[in-house]
Amino acid sequence: xxxxxxxxxxxxxxxxxxxxxxxxxDYSLSISNNPDDRAKFISQLQNALINVGFLYLSNTxxxxxxxxxxxxxxxIPKLFELPQGEKDKIRMVNSxxxxxxxxxxxxxxxxxxxxxxxxxxxxxxxxxxxxxDPDHYNVWGPPQYPDESVIPxxxxxxETYLSQVTTLGSQFITLIAQALGLPPSGLSQFYDIxxxxxxxxxxxxxxxxxxxxDSNQGVxxxxxxxxxxILLQVTSHPGLQVQNLAGEWIDATPxxxxxxxxxxxxxxxxxxxxxxxxxxxxxxxxxxxxxxxxSVPLFxxxxxxxRVSEPKYQLEFPPEILKLRDERGSLATTDSINYSxxxxxxxGQVQLMGRVKSHPDVAQRHYPELFKRFFPDxxxxxxxxx
Length: 386
Ligand SMILES: O=C(O)CCC(=O)C(=O)O
Ligand SMILES: [Fe+2]
Prior knowledge:
Elements: E1 24-26, H1 27-30, H2 35-52, E2 54-58, H3 66-80, H4 84-89, E3 100-102, E4 108-109, E5 112-113, E6 117-122, H5 154-179, E7 200-206, E8 217-222, E9 228-233, E10 240-243, E11 249-251, E12 258-263, H6 265-270, E13 280-283, E14 293-300, H7 319-328, H8 347-358, H9 360-366, H10 368-374
The site of fe (ii) ion has 3 residues, from loops.
Protein name: Fe2OG dioxygenase domain-containing protein
InterPro entries: DIOX_N, IPNS-like_FE2OG_OXY, IPNS-like_sf, Oxoglu/Fe-dep_dioxygenase_dom
GO molecular function: metal ion binding; oxidoreductase activity
């Protein structure tokens, strides 16, 4: 699939900035004592936010220690090689919070099967849902980990990693605010106190498709949901691609020592379209590859009750920032369609609907009413998270 399908947002006479590569930003500039360095970082971030929606971030070891990354990475092949029975003990269908293990081919994007196997894991949290509460309070809850005895130390390695990446995410939010002409705390109204927040990650394996496979969809075109995603590309495989304003797919080839950061639909709506949520997808490793691709995204959430369209959440941006958005234009060719519900629904409800569409079997067990709404003909043949 190389050509973009046109949607309502197609703009054939596109003018203004487009991108053909993804900028690399040096995080250490943002914490430098030299104000010129900090200003340079903010200006590069402004361009990435408004015109690209993606960036690579280098030099983050002051927040995410290299040894923490290395330790997590060392567990990843072992995690997927656990006996199937151990993985099945923590399958996602056990969890109303959509956390746990999904076997290969269990997930749908835009109704098509993704060719990936994954563990959805999140920062520690208890479920706050009580009878009578909205369903979406239940999208946050305790993660499921494999038994400590079968992979000793993994849980600690993952929790340490998640905690450090979450810290980077929270600091990055203050930089985003500044790049949008707001004070550093300008986006804090979208967050609850840290103890009442949950951020989710995944550990993902994209296997080499077998010769008979007619699909190279690792994960289909989509937008991410929240404010930002921080992605570790563990292996050197190409495969992640990002859609530019003209609808062309641009490679986000792994750069060692960097994270990929991209912005989600909630941030796009909350910033009146100034920050771009950019469509992306992952292609399976090429047929001649001898190893799978691994990645670890972390989705940095906003609070469950936030309805970005509510008057109390409206932000005022300086005219020069709005001008940059207008010069870019609000139209782009895209293959992605998801998460437009942020326009009307609270963030938790949008997340829940996204999860229902991706994991229908989990929804059927835990959210039967929503399941019927999205899958009136019952469970699709594919797309069972196990
Ligand atoms: O695996 C990757 O590189 C990206 C995955 C992704 O886009 C997602 O899970 O939202
Ligand atoms: Fe994504």
